[in-house]
Amino acid sequence: MSISKLNPIFILAIISLCGVFQATNSKSKKKFNGLHLRMIHIDSPESPTYEPELTDIERINRLLIMSDYRIQYLVNKTSQRQVEPDMASLPIRRQSLLYYVQIGIGQFNDVHQPYHNNYLVFDTSTDVIWTQCQDCRHCFRQRFSLFPNRKSQTYRPFTYTECHPSIWRGDHCEFYAQYEDGTEMRGIWAHETFTFTSMSSINEPINGIDFVCAIDTYNNPTGKVDGNNIITGTLGMSKSEKSLFSQLGSKVQYKFSYCFQDFGDHDGQYPPMFLSFGDQISQPPIMYATPIFTIRHPLAEQFYYVNLVGISVDDTLLFIPPHLFASNINDYVGATIFDTVATLTHLASPAFDILLNAIIEYVTQHNIYLKRRTDILPDKLEACWEPLYDLAPVHFPKITFHFEKNADLIVQPQEMFPTLSGIPGVHLPGLSCLTVARTFDGGFNVIGAYQQINQRVIVDMEKSLLLFAPADCTSDTH
């Protein structure tokens, strides 16, 4: 098993866009026969950010950096620190570590190019949709042209009556965002047409989507000399009212779904994956369901919170003090966030220590051909094991996360202990490392993307449920 299996976060969501736009009334009650975005693994030759020369260590290190930045963001948002309410989740320079959506924005009188293609970061914890626009005065450089907002037939800035008085700036409604790395972005709130692909492969333009047209991006380290940046903005998919998911709302029955593949051995062939919306979502006959709840915190209401009630190693339930997982609508401490940008699962430090000690005890008892390595650990990983000789037999436990309403997320050993190969001086197949880390600050927990591999995940906000079930994601049919 190679580190390529540690890449669920390395996925590029791409929509196949073709055909001609049709006008859609923004107030329409029309429901669509399912919408989807096709997702492509970033290490596939199809990906525009394909980097075949990266080693396993380079891949794991950038994954860990990404996960660390994500946790810092979540800590800031859930703590009582005074941060901007519109603070975005991640610096755009993290582009090689995220999901992307290539989506058509606007309507143009051009039969060959009736919309403008944009690559946007896909993020389930971000509030808004934004992209750099042609009116931008200070922009980070990007590979593709800026969105020509003034030429779009459907671009319409917010009027004064549509804008909160506190952010009206004389002739436009302003949005302001600040990133953890010092990057700042200012933009104009506007309405625009976005195009999706239906389950029947028909393009579905949706008019009147609220988004931010970025006109200033300061202190952004992404501005490479060659202007080779892929990402132009962010596609927010959180619970907040301005996210794409919330704006689609009843049109897609308040549902979206994904199924992350295990990218171990496909001989370079990556089956299609889909981010899917609406009633046409593929749903296994039996699924676990746990309630999604909201914490009354002005900066952190948009996350998908669930109640984690316990953890088992193999089939042994660990004794973890209940207060470490106890959460309520008024306090984020003990809460658990289901997230698609954090690569690793993160646990509050006391709970992590209990899990780590139980895993070390299990591995020690069940393996005579493994030794723990503490001298060459990748940053942030606290437990790795090396076989005593090439291809020695190893046995790691499954880990079960128990959620409210008897919903069990069972993570198989290959997803919990992936192998880093090609490390000099390490016996084959390589180091097997625990992909759970501790949260030093914040007191909350995060279920990361890697622990969601080969799980069909459905967010159903009409019923306020998070559903999941084991699935073969290589045969994803939406």
Automatic annotation (TrEMBL):
Pfam families: TAXi_C, TAXi_N. GO terms for molecular function: aspartic-type endopeptidase activity. The keyword Secreted does not apply. Residues 99-469 form the Peptidase A1 domain. The keyword Signal applies. GO terms for cellular component: extracellular region. SUPFAM superfamilies: Acid proteases (SSF50630). CDD domains: pepsin_A_like_plant. Keywords: Aspartyl protease, Glycoprotein, Hydrolase, Protease, Signal. One of its GO terms (biological process) is proteolysis. Residues 1-23 form the signal peptide. Belongs to the peptidase A1 family. This is Peptidase A1 domain-containing protein. It comes from Saponaria officinalis.
